[in-house]
Amino acid sequence: MSATIYSNSSFTDSPYGLKLQQTISATGTSSVTIPTGINRVYAIVIGGGGAGATATTGGAGGGGAGGYSAGWTYVSNTVTVGAGGTGTAVAGTASSGSTSIYGMVFAGGGAGAGVGGGSGGAAAGATTPTISSSTISYTGAPAVSINNIGYASAGTNNVVTGPAGVSTGGGGGNSTLTGTVVGRDGGRGLICGGGGAVGTSGLGTGGNGGTGDFFAGGTGSSGTGTSFGGAGGGAGATSAGANASANNGGNGGSGGGGGGAGSTLGLAGSGGNGVVFLYY
């Protein structure tokens, strides 16, 4: 005896028997109208991505992806969509994304890139983001070390590429100032972290934003000297990450992390805004 679990030829998050009725991408809190007689809604909620960082010398890390959460909830007449963190050209700061929420379903914002040591930001989870391990996710999935797949994976240093996950951390920047230098890519997943940048007098290539299940991450900038080396933005849930330009980082796709910027004080990529999908 055999059974066909899915009638679709490709994977879908759409709950059986329901249709996607509303997609809300405008950031902030707004009103939602659900038809009379509908008492439960299936929501997919994605938080805003974290911004990349910049550096006075060398390269900075990429921002972490926004969180992903899905499930049934009571009907609510309001929805909040988290904005992505805004990238700046000021060293020592990298803003995190904001939380998205509908009813009982919520997803946190990705962490801004670490401002010390060029580390990437962690993907959104339920606890304070770290570099050496992932965070506990809103689904209850436990944290794991930097070298393992996590539901909301860790940001990385300049030694390893960001680990895979559903939401992934940003790649680490590289502080080496001479010679041929390559930044680390953001982790691969559904919603991805930004790449890590470089800043070298030699040939520098910024890391790519993490490539998602449906969209590509942005590519890093490559060239000789510190006017190159920006990193690409991470792939989002509904859009690709932007490519880096010169020593500036690319912006993340929807919920993706921003790419890191290279010296001297390039403009870091902004995290992508979150999005909420309502099925009924």
The pLDDT mean sits at 87
Order of helices and strands: EEEEEEEEEEEEE
- Neighbour order of strands in the largest sheet: 1-13-3-4
Total domain modules: 1
- Our measurement of the CA-to-CA distance between the termini, rounded to an integer number of angstroms, reads 32 Å
- Strand content is 15-25%
| Shape category | elongated
- Give the proportion of residues in helices: under 10%
Most strands sheet: 4 strands, antiparallel
Output the structural class: mainly beta
Question: Regarding quaternary structure, how should these chains be classified?
Answer: single chain
Kindly provide the radius of gyration, computed on alpha-carbon positions and rounded to a whole number of angstroms: 18 Å
